[in-house]
Write a structure and sequence with these properties.
Helix content is 30%, strand content 22%. It has an eight-stranded mixed beta sheet with strand order 12-11-8-6-7-14-15-23, sandwiched between helices. A seven-stranded mixed beta sheet has the order 5-4-17-16-18-19-20, with helices on both faces. A four-stranded antiparallel beta sheet has the order 21-22-24-25. Residues 26-83 form the Acetyl-coenzyme A synthetase N-terminal domain.
Length: 649
């Protein structure tokens, strides 16, 4: 165990005094949420404007033979109404969305009223295209306000949106269009990312030549860059159809359990799963977690750097913040363009108070050295957040010290596409922070740690992370495949939701995510998570990023194969390899001694920025034939390079 793992950053009094939830409130509300979920969630449902107030609160079954999850089932509401209409009286002229373009010269703001009017026009346009309640609409869009409007416009008329990340290939898009059977696709001519243009419309055209996509009748095209595109009979310019529509559109009354959206997981561990989320429970959960985890107060400028193509973008750029009447910043580009310091510059420019980003972005910045943030002051920041992967303690400290000027609490939020919202995270006014630790369950979330036979383990322990009861934000099914939903999440341990992640619970009862269960190493009979060894390596001054996988080993059962990316100022050498081996042995113990180290300029990542260890595992084992589903890989070229430079023991 490294020294820094033991560091604690206690809650500061000034922060606790102004926070929504302090230590006592957390204890009291958490107990209530577990002991009496009906009364807790009936109270929390009041943060939503219901058309018909629910009287039945929780009705959920978690068992391998029957998974049936219903929250607020006799209530009716409209999600778009809750994100827009109800704010108009008080916040009509307040900014809803700050948009920052890929080019630092491009930005704009939209008030709640402007967003409302545009969304209504868009909803009317969808109706004109024949979209009705229950139909699905596929969105393949840049990070522009029209993406949020399109989501809200669907919600307004009861259509189910399926957002496909704009970095996906035509094949991946075609699969998702086919899966959702959408009559309408909304896209743009091109998106602008990092100074490059991505041909979204061309990709849609290509996708629609694939099998199973002839269901598409119309493609609505936002003019973003004005780049050249082909034009087909089914294509319609967004502005031509939308501008002429009425700025009022009645909302559709939806049952709490009517579907709100379909969204695919990142595809880190296999073929992505199309999760189905419903309306009432999802929105309640997105709103409450956004308010309490980020300690959001009226007027705060809040920036989540995710793409709307991921669940983080759904819950924490669009639905959570807008349901809370927040100011949400939407960024079109990539954090390193045009200069590595861009993220800090955006914070200064828009006086961002709350910044929510991913470990991969933090590690990439840190690789440039501490001066990378010199072009900004970031004095407006009050709180930082992290999501997507375990954050290595060293990267956490850097985030805290360099980006947050050593004054902002960091919320390390653990959750999944399947969860709808944050499940395990510090609450900044209530929880002492430990770098690399997701700490405590959110209200209504009952985590458990089980061994491989499904026995619940008590006290300080390590094992598989499960959730023992339903919370309002959980996905209800996999779209059109309830069997796979049960199989994937509820069959491993009967009566429990299995997360697929490993975790450790320490003496204080805090949860540390140790990595995917599939990635757990078994070295001479000792089980070890990948996160710990990777964090040890990242703590070495030369290492920017590391990925650890097991490979078949005659004596130890599994050996440790490590892929390392170095910081800008360091070069690969055999001496450095030896030094890193000694470093890990000293830090964790001889049992964790690396057998193989391979240098690489980059690691294979999902398009949401997560290290794809299953590919690294195959390369380490020299099974480079069947690499599995690689359609979600953001940098396929690196795979060839990794195979070519594979180190033979
Ligand atoms: P797939 O399910 O298709 O393999 P995925 O699991 O990467 O892809 P997501 O739903 O985007 O898809 O990611 C959820 C996973 O991300 C979690 O199960 C966990 O492994 C990881 N994760 C997210 N946040 C954290 C965090 N704060 N700490 C540790 N791990 C995290
Ligand atoms: Mg997953």
């Amino acid at each position: 165990m490294t020294e820094q793992h033991k560091d604690i950053y206690p809650v500061r009094d000034e922060f606790a005094q102004q926070a929504w939830i302090d230590r006592d409130a957390y204890q009291k509300l958490y107990r209530q949420s577990i002991d009496d979920p009906d009364s807790f969630w009936a109270e929390q449902a009041k943060r939503i404007d219901w058309i018909k107030t629910p009287t039945k609160i929780k009705n959920t079954k978690f068992s391998a033979s029957d998974v049936d999850i219903r929250w607020f089932e006799d209530g009716t509401l409209n999600a778009c109404y809750n994100c827009l209409d109800r704010h108009l009286e008080k916040r009509g002229n307040q900014t809803a969305i700050i948009w920052e373009g890929d080019d630092p010269k491009d930005d704009k703001t939209l008030t709640y009223r402007e967003l409302y009017e545009r969304t209504c026009q868009m909803a009317n346009a969808l109706k004109e295209l024949g979209i009705k309640k229950g139909d699905t609409v596929t969105l393949y869009m840049p990070m522009i306000p029209e993406a949020a409007m399109a989501m809200l416009a669907c919600a307004r008329i009861g259509a189910v949106h399926s957002v496909v990340f704009g970095g996906f290939s035509p094949d991946a898009l075609a699969q998702r269009i086919n899966g959702a059977q959408s009559k309408v696709v909304i896209t743009a001519d091109e998106s602008a990312r990092g100074g490059k243009f991505v041909p979204l419309k061309d990709n849609v055209d290509a996708a629609l030549t694939r099998d199973g996509t002839d269901v598409v009748e119309s493609v609505l095209v936002v003019k973003r860059t004005g780049g050249e595109i082909d034009w087909n009979e089914r294509d319609i310019w967004f502005h031509e159809l939308v501008d002429k529509q009425d700025k009022d559109c009645p909302v559709e009354e939806m049952a709490a359990e009517d579907p709100l959206f379909i969204l695919y997981t990142s595809g880190s561990t296999g073929a992505p799963k199309g999760m189905m989320h419903t309306t009432g429970g999802y929105l309640t959960f997105a709103a409450i977690t956004h308010q309490y985890v980020f300690d959001y107060h009226e007027g705060d400028v809040y920036w989540c750097t995710a793409d709307v193509g991921w669940v983080t973008g759904h819950s924490y750029i669009v639905y959570g913040p807008l349901a809370n009447g927040a100011i949400t910043l939407m960024f079109e580009g990539v954090p390193s363009y045009p200069t590595p310091g861009r993220m800090g510059e955006i914070v200064d420019k828009h006086q961002v108070n709350i910044l929510y980003t991913a470990p991969t972005a933090i590690r990439a910045l840190r690789a440039h050295g501490d001066d990378v943030m010199a072009s900004s002051k970031r004095e407006s920041l009050k709180l930082l957040g992290s999501v997507g992967e375990p954050i290595n303690p060293e990267a956490w400290e850097w985030y805290y010290r360099i980006i947050g000027n050593s004054k902002c609490p960091i919320v390390d939020t653990w959750w999944q596409t399947e969860n709808g919202g944050i499940l395990i995270s510090p609450l900044p006014g209530a929880t002492d922070l430990k770098p690399g630790c997701a700490t405590n369950p959110f209200f209504g979330v009952k985590p458990g740690v089980v061994d491989n036979d499904g026995n619940l383990l008590e006290g300080a322990t390590e094992g598989n992370l499960v959730i023992l009861d339903a919370w309002p934000g959980i996905a209800r099914s996999i779209w059109n495949d309830h069997e796979r939903f049960i199989q994937t999440y509820f069959s491993t341990y009967d009566g429990m939701y299995f997360t697929g992640d490993g975790c450790r619970r320490d003496e204080d009862g805090d949860y540390w995510i140790t990595g995917r269960v599939d990635d757990v190493l078994n070295i001479s009979g000792h089980r070890m998570g990948t996160a710990e060894i990777e964090s040890s390596l990242v703590a070495h001054e030369a290492v920017a990023e590391a990925a650890v996988v097991g490979f078949p080993h005659d004596i130890k059962g599994q050996g440790i194969y490590i892929y390392v990316t170095l910081n800008d100022d360091f070069d690969p050498s055999d001496e450095l390899k030896k030094e890193l081996v000694q470093w890990v042995r000293k830090d964790i113990g001889p049992i964790a001694s690396p057998d193989v180290i391979q240098w690489t300029p980059d690691l294979p990542k999902t398009r949401s920025g997560k290290i794809m260890r299953r590919i690294l595992r195959k390369i380490a084992a020299n099974e480079t034939e069947g690499l599995g589903d690689t359609s979600t890989l953001s940098n396929p070229a690196v795979v060839e390079e990794l195979i070519a430079n594979r180190v033979n023991r």
